[in-house]
Amino acid sequence: QKEVEQNSGPLSVPEGAIASLNCTYSDRGSQSFFWYRQYSGKSPELIMFIYSNGDKEDGRFTAQLNKASQYVSLLIRDSQPSDSATYLCAVSSTLGRLYFGRGTQLTVWP
Amino acid sequence: DVKVTQSSRYLVKRTGEKVFLECVQDMDHENMFWYRQDPGLGLRLIYFSYDVKMKEKGDIPEGYSVSREKKERFSLILESASTNQTSMYLCASSIPTGVSISPLHFGNGTRLTVT
Fold first, then answer.
1. Touching check for B41 and chain A: CB below 8 Å?
2. What b/e string do you get for B36-68 counting C-beta neighbours within 10 Å, with b at 16 or more?
3. Which of B35, B38, B30, B44 has its CA nearest to residue B76?
């Protein structure tokens, strides 16, 4: 079983702040990394994916990957109350499957 | 946009019943997956399929089977439902890629309650 660990949370930040979500993984062969957002009672929706070391930015979201440290993070700048959700980190295995962390619950308060 | 449709949003079944959960995707994706999601346990892979008539066990296949007779449809079968199979079931699909795998696209989920 491949391990994907996320900071357990819950994480609470004020509106306008930067929210930082972290994820570590055990499989050194992992090549693909994803962040999903899941609102309560809904299915996960893809926010970002990253395949290479470094940063990848999309609007207010930045994914950061460090394969040497087996670490991937998601930064949300200018957090909004609508960002309040559970964020799931997903990591590919060498067999081409995805393993998910248990999620970090984020609350952005006005 | 990719559309993954699960046939039921909510389902209530009795212990011992045979239960079918249906999933259809409209983007000609080769890969299809069934997960269950439980509080505190996250998403766990039950079965997946990379092609028609092909299936592979995931991490928790016990008590489940699947069927993929057509590319767009992937069915999850609970042979004899038990209360510990009460859960949210999520179907997903993706395109096949090389070393880097493509994102999963999820359906809306089926919340199954077994009484």
1. yes
2. bbeeeebbbbbbbbeeeeebeebeeeeebebbb
3. B35
CB contact under 8 Å between B42 and A100, yes or no, is yes
What is the least distance, in Å, from the CA of B38 to any CA of chain A?
10
* A contacts of B99 (beta carbons < 8 Å): 31
The model's pLDDT over A10-50, given as tens digits with 9 standing for 90+, comes to 999 999 999 999 999 998 888 899 999 999 989 999 999 99
DSSP of B65-88: EEEEEETTEEEEEESS--GGG-EE
- Return the sign of the alpha-carbon dihedral for residues A12, A13, A15, A16: negative
Contact list, A45 vs chain B (CB under 8 Å):
106
Decide: residue A14, CB within 10 A, 0-12 exposed, 13-18 middle, 19+ buried. Answer: exposed
**Nearest CA distance, A100 vs chain B (angstrom):** 6
Higher pLDDT, A40 or B98: A40
List residues bridging with A15 in a β-sheet.
Answer: none
With beta carbons under 8 A apart, name residues in chain A contacting B101.
31-32, 92, 96, 98
